Every structure is written in structure tokens, then in C-alpha cells.
Amino acid sequence: MAKFDANSTFKRLQNRYRLVVMNDDTYEEVVTFKLSRLSVYVVLSTIFVLLTGLTVALIVFTPLKLYIPGYGDVNNTRELRELKIRTDSLEQSVRYKDLYLQNLQTVLQGNTPVKKDTTTLTIPKPEKIDD
């Protein structure tokens, strides 16, 4: 198994390379870059961090954050919860009033079915206490 040598890895990162962009027709050098693996890594990492930071800033400091599910203004969430509770209580109130009006209408029309109690009650006789 090969041993890991930190010095050789760091030196390999610092080796210099030349990147040449040439015109294919005339073989003329258009641009020349002197790069190392370390500089390419640093540049790509910096670009990644900047793009991530810009994306986060765009979401946090603009109204785009309202489109994220579960994220919203605290006041809007509280108002929405209060409106939901109020709506539920109003629906229940309307149901009770409809039931009351329906029962009142059946009583006024005389359509109430008379239910007779067919169960017999057995009333116990009071016990006499003898002294």
C-alpha cells in the first residue's frame, strides 16, 4: 500500500502548468495562462462560494423567499391561523343555526313524530328504618 506524503501532495499542487489557446488555422497563440492545480482549485472554490452567497442573498433579501414552502412572514402566518379558527367557528355556528331552524320548522308544521316511552320504570319502595 502506498504511503500518503503531505509534502509530495503539496508540491504536486504547486507544480506550474501552461494553458495555451491557439488559433487552429494559423497556430498562432491567442492567450497563454500559467496555472497550478492549487490556483485552479482556489479560483473554482471562490466562484462556488460567491455564487452560493449571491443566491442566498437573492432569496433572503427579496420577496422570492415567500415562494419557499413553509417560509413566510410571521404576521401572515399568525393572521392565517386566526382566520382559519374564525372560519371554523363560523361554519359551526351556521350548522347549529340551520339545525335549529330545521327543528323549529318541523315543530311548527306539526311533523314531529311522537315517541312513546315503552320502558317501565321500577321505583323502589322506601325502606323503613326500625329503631
Tell me the radius of gyration: 42 Å
Adjacency order of strands in the biggest sheet:
1-2
| SSE-based structural type | mainly alpha
Span between termini: 108 Å
Helix/strand order: HEEHH
Spans with pLDDT under 50 lasting ≥5 residues?
none
What's the helical proportion of residues?
Answer: 40-55%
Labels describing this entry:
131 residues, mainly alpha, two-stranded antiparallel ribbon, 2 strands
Characterise the protein shown here.
The chain is mainly alpha-helical. Helices cover 53% and strands 11% of the residues. It contains 3 helices and 2 strands; from the N terminus they run H-E-E-H-H. Strand 1 and strand 2 form a beta hairpin. The protein is elongated and about 125 Å long.
Write a brief structural summary.
With 131 residues, the chain is mainly alpha-helical. It is built from 3 helices and 2 strands; from the N terminus they run αββαα.
Q: Any chance you could write out the topology, listing elements then pairs?
A:
Elements: H1 6-14, E1 16-22, E2 29-36, H2 37-60, H3 74-109
Antiparallel strand pairs: 1-2
